[in-house]
From TrEMBL, chain A:
<dbReference type="InterPro" id="IPR027973">
    <property type="entry name" value="FSAF1-like"/>
</dbReference>
<dbReference type="GO" id="GO:0005730">
    <property type="term" value="C:nucleolus"/>
</dbReference>
<feature type="compositionally biased region" description="Acidic residues">
    <location>
        <begin position="87"/>
        <end position="99"/>
    </location>
</feature>
<feature type="compositionally biased region" description="Basic and acidic residues">
    <location>
        <begin position="106"/>
        <end position="119"/>
    </location>
</feature>
<dbReference type="GO" id="GO:0000462">
    <property type="term" value="P:maturation of SSU-rRNA from tricistronic rRNA transcript (SSU-rRNA, 5.8S rRNA, LSU-rRNA)"/>
</dbReference>
<feature type="compositionally biased region" description="Basic and acidic residues">
    <location>
        <begin position="236"/>
        <end position="272"/>
    </location>
</feature>
<feature type="compositionally biased region" description="Gly residues">
    <location>
        <begin position="273"/>
        <end position="282"/>
    </location>
</feature>
<feature type="compositionally biased region" description="Basic residues">
    <location>
        <begin position="301"/>
        <end position="310"/>
    </location>
</feature>
<feature type="compositionally biased region" description="Basic and acidic residues">
    <location>
        <begin position="289"/>
        <end position="300"/>
    </location>
</feature>
Automatic annotation (TrEMBL), chain B:
<dbReference type="Pfam" id="PF01137">
    <property type="entry name" value="RTC"/>
</dbReference>
<comment type="similarity">
    <text>Belongs to the RNA 3'-terminal cyclase family. Type 2 subfamily.</text>
</comment>
<dbReference type="GO" id="GO:0004521">
    <property type="term" value="F:RNA endonuclease activity"/>
</dbReference>
<dbReference type="GO" id="GO:0000480">
    <property type="term" value="P:endonucleolytic cleavage in 5'-ETS of tricistronic rRNA transcript (SSU-rRNA, 5.8S rRNA, LSU-rRNA)"/>
</dbReference>
<dbReference type="Pfam" id="PF05189">
    <property type="entry name" value="RTC_insert"/>
</dbReference>
<dbReference type="GO" id="GO:0008047">
    <property type="term" value="F:enzyme activator activity"/>
</dbReference>
<dbReference type="InterPro" id="IPR023797">
    <property type="entry name" value="RNA3'_phos_cyclase_dom"/>
</dbReference>
<dbReference type="GO" id="GO:0000447">
    <property type="term" value="P:endonucleolytic cleavage in ITS1 to separate SSU-rRNA from 5.8S rRNA and LSU-rRNA from tricistronic rRNA transcript (SSU-rRNA, 5.8S rRNA, LSU-rRNA)"/>
</dbReference>
<dbReference type="InterPro" id="IPR013791">
    <property type="entry name" value="RNA3'-term_phos_cycl_insert"/>
</dbReference>
Length: 310, 401
């Protein structure tokens, strides 16, 4: 203990010292009470001790008359220590004037062991373990540390409850299956199982691929005779036309028809490199058709008025 | 100004100049600041103040300023805070702001006000600070280091509901150059979270300090300086908070071209030194920071810097309240700009009773914000509770959009 702390509790020590003399010579109590005002300030602790003393006296008296109190064990031990402490104190007193630890006799027994986990501060290389590295990455990144700190506990969480994760995975799987069923249910026959088979399987697969962003269906036939294709297209347009006509007759408003661009307007035939940009070159002569000439001349005046309208 | 409009708000002297301009921009009031260093040998606006005005002009649209011939008076009519939309001076969405040589202020002088504007901007703010005047460390003029801005100021925005896409990249470090002027660092601020109004906060409980983090930086000097600073600082702080880490950042000195006739390609080193930034975080999310850097003239051992910084941090914590002095202005301004609701903040008496905070309160009330309510936090009277009603202006750009 430093001297400053001793001086801080100076009045107390004064009183306490009195008590020690009390214990060695039991009489002094009386004197103390009659002592001057200076000591009166310290009356309280001494009064307490008086009580304990009185208790001690009563106990001894009781023990002499009857037998030692059973539950002695508890009070006895401190007493022994007290004596020791008293001796110590006396020695102390011989050494230096005012070092007293009266109440601390009791406290000394219950003293809480203080363990400091400070260690020797050393260079920061000490924190080479993974957590510290992550921490460092999070702290030294360009983001404010609280925002960066959040994602750290995530991996720990997933490790902890793998069961939860399994559940999650199963849920996801079921979810996907349900979604697929809902989307492809129109392909299923009433009597077949839930998984489409054969041709329907291909159709389902095609649907999925298109949902993922495919431009064309795998079911469209790329190559066929021109007459076939023409027939198909004619049929399709006829069907569409019929649908629109019927809707119009019934007063149903349909979506606007898609504008089909004229083919030759949007893309010209790919011409060879180095050849003329217009006309046909044959036999050392560039031949221009009427249409080519019309293209070069541009629209006529007369048509201009109409051209603005669509 | 030929016709003084009734909405013109008049201020005097250069005190908290940057903050006044920011407040004017946020409230949309025209202000006039006069008597700027009238009797100084170098009267008028300083170069860093001019530079801040340029920065303000870059991130706003339609703002107008008029500076008198001597530079002792400026009239500022704020525009819309547009941020860094590409096509308006921002190449690729990044505004490049060059700080002039001889700038004695740390970069935090520009960063903290800019961060106050950023949540109310229309587009994200993305500014790259370059040039021979960027000092990233703490400065003798009292500016905190860029690390402290990132680790102690920016996390506070999270309490106001502003936390996404905020980044402060320190691309190159620099300490103050000779005479405390200039540096050649490079820092990029990205503030990508814009809100209508910041959330109302109630911070009544400072909590207990649970962790201390820090950055020790050295520029162009031996890395052992860092180790020595960290050693001493941890020696002081570790017995108090065991969760104390101080990270070390070593960088080489920035080079700036200094062409001479003899050698037109000559370069010289600028802004070498070292420093320490410490941040304590409490269990309730309050931040306390401390910053010390080696003086430009040198001559201080790193142990002293480490010790001074650790003690400064302890002092900041001992001031109490939920904010440190460095962050108090930011918090109070954001509260004042919040929705029309009462926010409460516990502030230490010694933090509150400073010139800057009292000035801030007066400036705000002059600009039409409501007054602050101040009462004792408890019977002990160590702290105050400051209640602030938000202005409810919020982000004009967001209102339309």
């Amino acid at each position: 203990m430093s001297s400053s702390s001793r001086s801080a509790v100076a009045p107390k020590t004064l009183g306490k010292r009195k008590r020690q003399t009390n214990e060695s010579k039991a009489k002094v109590n009386g004197i103390k009470k009659s002592a001057g005002p200076k000591i009166q300030t310290t009356r309280e602790p001494s009064a307490e001790e008086e009580e304990s003393d009185a208790y001690e006296v009563f106990r001894r008296h009781f023990e002499s008359q009857f037998k030692p109190i059973e539950e002695d064990l508890r009070p006895k031990q401190p007493k022994v220590e007290e004596k020791q402490a008293d001796n110590d104190d006396e020695e102390d007193e011989e050494d230096e004037d005012s070092d007293w630890s009266g109440i601390s006799d009791d406290e000394g027994k219950r003293k809480v062991e203080v363990v400091e986990h400070t260690g020797k501060p050393s260079n920061s290389n000490e924190y080479d373990d993974l957590a510290a590295k992550e921490e460092m990455k999070a702290f030294m990144s360009s983001k404010p540390p609280t925002a960066a700190r959040k994602p750290i506990p995530k991996p720990q969480k997933s490790k902890e409850n793998s069961e939860d994760e399994n559940d999650e995975a199963a849920n996801l799987k079921n979810d996907l299956a349900l979604q697929r069923l809902l989307r492809e249910s129109h392909l299923l026959d009433s009597n077949s199982s839930l998984d489409p088979t054969g041709k329907n399987r291909h159709k389902a697969l095609d649907l999925r691929i298109q949902a993922l962003g495919s431009n064309s269906s795998i079911m469209t036939q790329e190559k066929m005779p021109l007459s076939h294709r023409k027939g198909i297209m004619a049929k399709a347009s006829e069907r569409e036309e019929k649908r629109r006509r019927e809707a119009r007759e019934n007063g149903i408003i349909l979506e606007k028809p898609k504008l089909t661009k004229r083919k030759d307007a949007e893309s010209r035939r790919e011409r060879g490199v180095g050849g003329p940009g217009v006309g046909k070159f044959r036999g050392g002569m560039l031949k221009l058709s009427k249409r080519d000439i019309a293209d070069i001349e541009g629209p006529k005046r007369m048509a201009k008025g109409k051209k603005g309208r669509r | 100004m030929a016709d003084p409009r009734p909405r013109l708000v008049k201020f005097e002297t250069q005190r908290s100049f940057a903050l006044r301009l920011v407040l004017a921009t946020l409230t949309g009031k025209t202000i006039r600041v006069s008597n700027i260093r009238p009797s100084s040998t170098n009267p008028g606006l300083a170069n860093y103040e001019i530079s801040f005005i340029r920065l303000l002009e870059a991130v706003t649209n339609g703002s107008a300023m008029e500076i008198s011939y001597t530079g002792t008076t400026i009239a500022y009519k704020p525009g819309l805070i547009t941020g860094c939309a590409p096509g308006r001076g921002a190449s690729g969405g990044v505004i490049r702001h060059e700080l002039p040589e001889g700038c004695p202020r740390g970069l935090s002088y520009f960063l903290i006000p800019l961060c106050l504007l950023a949540p109310f901007s229309k587009a994200p703010i993305n500014v790259l600070f370059t040039g021979p005047g960027v000092i990233t460390s703490a400065t003798p003029m009292g500016d905190i280091s860029v690390d402290s801005v990132r680790t102690a100021i920016l996390p506070l925005y999270e309490q106001f509901g502003i936390f996404n896409n905020i980044e402060l990249r320190i691309l190159r470090r620099s300490c103050p150059g000779p005479g405390g002027k200039g540096g050649a660092g490079e820092v990029q601020l990205m503030f990508g979270h814009q809100v209508r109004v910041p959330k109302t906060i109630h911070m009544m409980n400072p909590g207990r300090v649970k962790r201390i983090r820090g950055v020790a930086y050295c520029v162009g000097v031996s890395a052992s300086n860092n180790a020595r600073m960290i050693d001493v600082a941890r020696g002081i702080l570790n017995p108090l908070v065991s969760d104390t880490y101080v990270f070390s950042d070593v960088s080489s000195a920035p080079l700036i071209p200094s062409a001479t006739k003899a050698d037109p390609n000559a370069k010289r080193k600028l802004g070498i030194g070292f420093g320490l930034s410490l941040v304590a975080e409490s269990s309730t999310g309050a931040f306390y920071s401390a910053d010390v850097a080696s003086p430009p003239e040198g001559g201080v051992p790193p142990e002293d810097i480490g010790r001074q910084c650790a003690y400064q941090l302890l002092e900041t914590i001992s001031l109490g309240g939920c904010v440190s002095p460095a962050a108090a202005q930011t918090m109070l301004v954001l509260m004042a700009m919040g929705s029309e609701d009462v926010g409460r903040l516990r502030v230490g008496k010694k933090v509150f009773a400073t010139e800057e905070i009292i000035d801030l309160g007066r400036d705000l009330s002059q600009l039409g914000a409501s007054g602050w309510g101040v009462r004792d936090a408890d019977a002990e009277g160590e702290d105050l509770i400051v209640s602030i009603v938000g202005s409810g202006f919020g982000n004009v750009g967001r209102k339309i959009a």
